[in-house]
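Example S7 (structure tokens).
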């Protein structure tokens, strides 16, 4: 397939390139110039015409673009950008689009402060943070497009990215929603390759996390539908403890 990757300079984007480049033709884009051996374009996802031009001749779009803190840009990228990616995909007749978002897209503080056994079918309660609200609105746009057009939209929900093993002697508190970059990129491959007939609906979200002892957020749906299983189980982290926000851990 010829794949348009939006957000190629982000935390996850380069790992998606590494995972897919041996099997697919990639067009890697970002708002800033991208250094890559693949075809690259400078694209602001907030501008529909730029997304349209980049998407010409592609078969599928992967949206890894994100902005977290800037008041205007968060809505331009996380909400309007999702709308633009979906608009271009529908115009081109794409059969699916892969979206990404943080756990706050569905499970905000109202859940995370008190609940366990959370899964993707919970009613969305993103909370009041700018990042969470703008991403949650983007996810609602995904649902509406999948309802109105013949396109499958698969949203990969991530939270904290960690190394496969913690630094020697590290002690701290571990985020109960964690995965390595490589395993998250493999989950995106699974979303690209899954037979759409296996999916219960045209709009599906998947928690991309290792099933940790806390059992706060569960990833069994990704296994059952996408056949995704993380290779890095992160046992060393939860045996010794780790601190989210350390140099070896990135939160989305």
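Recovered sequence:
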């Amino acid at each position: 397939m010829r794949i348009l990757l939006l957000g190629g300079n982000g935390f996850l984007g380069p790992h998606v390139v590494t995972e897919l480049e041996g099997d697919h033709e990639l067009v890697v884009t970002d708002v800033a110039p991208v250094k890559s051996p693949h075809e690259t374009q400078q694209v602001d996802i907030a501008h529909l015409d730029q997304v349209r031009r980049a998407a010409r001749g592609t078969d599928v779009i992967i949206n890894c673009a994100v902005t977290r803190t800037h008041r205007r840009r968060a809505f331009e990228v996380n909400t309007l950008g999702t709308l633009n990616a979906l608009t271009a995909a529908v115009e081109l007749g794409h059969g699916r689009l892969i979206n990404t978002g943080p756990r706050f897209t569905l499970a905000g503080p109202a859940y995370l402060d008190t609940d366990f056994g959370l899964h993707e079918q919970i009613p969305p309660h993103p909370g009041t943070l700018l990042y969470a609200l703008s991403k949650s609105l983007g996810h609602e746009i995904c649902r509406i497009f999948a309802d109105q057009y013949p396109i499958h939209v698969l949203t990969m929900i991530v939270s904290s990215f960690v190394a496969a093993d913690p630094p020697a002697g590290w002690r701290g508190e571990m985020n109960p929603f964690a995965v390595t970059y490589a395993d998250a990129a493999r989950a995106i491959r699974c979303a690209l390759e899954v037979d759409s007939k296996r999916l219960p609906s045209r709009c599906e979200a998947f928690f991309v996390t290792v099933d940790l002892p806390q059992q706060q957020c569960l990833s069994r749906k990704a296994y059952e539908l996408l056949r995704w299983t993380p290779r890095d189980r992160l046992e060393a982290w939860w045996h010794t403890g780790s601190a989210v926000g350390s140099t070896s851990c990135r939160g989305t």
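Notes on this example. Residues 242-251 have pLDDT under 50 and may be disordered.
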